[in-house]
C-alpha cells in the first residue's frame, strides 16, 4: 500500500494538550477545518471515526472506518433503491490493526482486511474512494468513485466539551459531487451526473462510555443540504445543525426537533426548527441495523435511508422547497 497523504493547511489549532486535556481555544464552530485532532492520553478511551454515505437516485452506499483504540471496525452497506436489494458486511480488527485514520479530515484513510478493503485517497480538490469485499451477501463488491471537493463548498467543523472531561471534534462534509460506479456480483451501478453526492462524517475525541445520538442529513442539486443532530452535544450547549445554500454553510441557532410519527420501523419523521427555518418530512425507504459487539461493548445503530420533502428558509428568509432529496436518519445507542 502506498503512503497516505495529506493536503490540509497549516498551522492548525491543537485539539488537546500533551496530557489529553481539551484546549479551550479549539472549542467552537468554523466553516473550514482548523483543528489538529491528534489525541493524547486516555489510552483505551480514544475514538476515531470516519463514515461515508453516497446517495444517488438509484442506490446508496454507506462505509464506516473506525479506530476505537482496542478494536478497529470496518463496515459496508449497499442499498438498491429500485429493487430493495440490501447487503452488508462488518469486520472487526483487534487493536485497530490495518486501520489508518488520520488526525485531519482532509487526509487519506484506509481499513484493510482480507474480507473488506476500504480506501480513500485525497488529492488537491478531489478524492478517490475504492472498496472491495469478496463476499457481501454472497456476492463480490467493487467500488470506484471520484469525489470532488469544490473550493466554494463549506463544511461543519465543531469542537465541543462532553461530560467527565470528554470532548468531541467533528467535520461534517455534505453535497460532494460524485462520479464513478459500483459492481455487485453481475449487477453494475453508475452514479447519475449532477444527482450523486458523497458525505463524510469525521469524528475524533474522548467519548462517553454510554452514548446516544440521532443524526439526519440530505443533499440536493444546487448546493442545498442539511445536517441535523440531537443527543450528542446537549451537555455542551453547542449545535451542529446546519443548512447549505449554494455551498455556503448556515449554522442554525434555534432548537430543532426530530420526531418519529409512530413506532413502525419505516414510519415518517418530522424535522422542525423553532424559528421555522426547517420544516421537513423524512420518508424512509429502507432500515439498516448494525450492532457490532466485543464482550460487553457494542454500538447499536439503526440507519434509515429515504428522502426529504418540505421547505427551508434561505439566508434572506426566502422559501427554498425541498422535493425528494435523498438522505438518511440514524440513531445509535453505544457502550464503548
Task: Write up this protein.
Pfam families: DUF2804 (PF10974). This is DUF2804 domain-containing protein. With 336 residues, the protein is an all-beta fold. The chain has one domain (13-335). The chain is 0% helix and 61% strand. It is built from no helices and 26 strands. The protein has strands at 13-14, 28-30, 35-36, 46-55, 59-67, 71-80, 86-94, 99-100, 109-113, 116-123, 126-136, 139-148, 156-161, 167-184, 187-190, 197-206, 210-220, 224-230, 242-245, 248-251, 256-260, 269-273, 278-290, 293-294, 297-313, 319-335. The strands form three sheets. Strands 2, 4, 5, 6, 7, 8, 9, 10, 11, 12, 13, 14, 15 and 16 form a 14-stranded antiparallel beta sheet that branches. Strands 17, 18, 19, 20, 21, 22, 23, 24, 25 and 26 form a ten-stranded antiparallel beta sheet that branches. It has a two-stranded parallel sheet with strand order 1-3. Strand 9 and strand 10 (116-123) form a beta hairpin. The two termini are 30 Å apart. Residues 1-7 have low confidence and may be disordered.
Furnish the topology, listing elements before pairings.
Layout lengths: L12 E2 L13 E3 L4 E2 L9 E10 L3 E9 L3 E10 L5 E9 L4 E2 L8 E5 L2 E8 L2 E11 L2 E10 L7 E6 L5 E18 L2 E4 L6 E10 L3 E11 L3 E7 L11 E4 L2 E4 L4 E5 L8 E5 L4 E13 L2 E2 L2 E17 L5 E17 L1
Radius of gyration: 19 Å
Largest sheet: 14 strands, antiparallel
The tally of beta strands, per DSSP, is 26
User: From N to C, what is the helix and strand string?
Assistant: EEEEEEEEEEEEEEEEEEEEEEEEEE
General shape: globular
The helix fraction, in percent, is under 10%
Number of helices: 0
Pick out the low-confidence regions. Answer: 1-7
Mean pLDDT equals 93
Q: Can you tell me the number of structural domains?
A: 1
Provide the β-strand percentage band.
over 45%
Kindly report how far apart the N and C termini lie.
Answer: 30 Å
- Helix vs. strand class: mainly beta
